[in-house]
């Protein structure tokens, strides 16, 4: 039985107008392997790098977007949800006190929304800006 209170949905509109919605308790990677979704079940207080990257991959619209986001988060926090630099918090080092107590999935949602609003959803543009200016 699936506890629907533990399901998380994520909707993203791609540049070509297609809409992707993700909501699941597990993902079938092949006909014989079932991998727990990063959004479901009991999550440890400090999630592993692999769990964070799995969630980020599920939220990314393409593999290229995932790779760019992965590099930004590595540079900003080295995948530490509790990272802090002055008034910047979390995986994405956002300037929001909300990120101080947010779960890793909430932090990733915040990051995706920030990229959508500032870089038209293109994390590779954000990475290029980060490489040039050391912030995004």
Helix content: 40-55%
Distance between the termini: 42 Å
- Morphology: globular
- The rounded Rg comes to 15 Å
Sheet with the most strands, sense and barrel status: 2 strands, antiparallel
**H-E order:** EEEEHHEEHHH
How much of the sequence is in beta strands? 15-25%
Classification by helices and strands: alpha+beta
Spatial arrangement of strands, main beta sheet: 1-2
- Low-confidence parts: 1-8, 23-43
What's the pLDDT, averaged over the residues? 81
Number of helices, where a helix is a run of at least 4 consecutive DSSP H or I residues:
5
**Total DSSP E strands:** 6
Characterise the protein shown here:
It is a single chain. With 136 residues, the chain is α+β, with helices and mostly antiparallel strands. The protein is 42% helix and 17% strand. The protein is built from 5 helices and 6 strands. The strands form 3 sheets. The protein has a two-stranded antiparallel ribbon with strand order 1-2. A two-stranded antiparallel sheet has the order 3-4. Helix 1 (49-59) packs across helix 2 (63-77) and helix 1 (49-59) crosses helix 4.
Features:
single chain, 136 residues, 5 helices, two-stranded antiparallel sheet, alpha+beta
Walk me through the topology:
Blueprint: E1 9-13, E2 19-23, E3 26-30, E4 33-36, H1 49-59, H2 63-77, E5 84-85, E6 88-89, H3 98-101, H4 104-119, H5 123-133
Antiparallel strand pairs: 1-2, 3-4, 5-6
Helix pairs in contact: 1-2, 1-4, 2-5
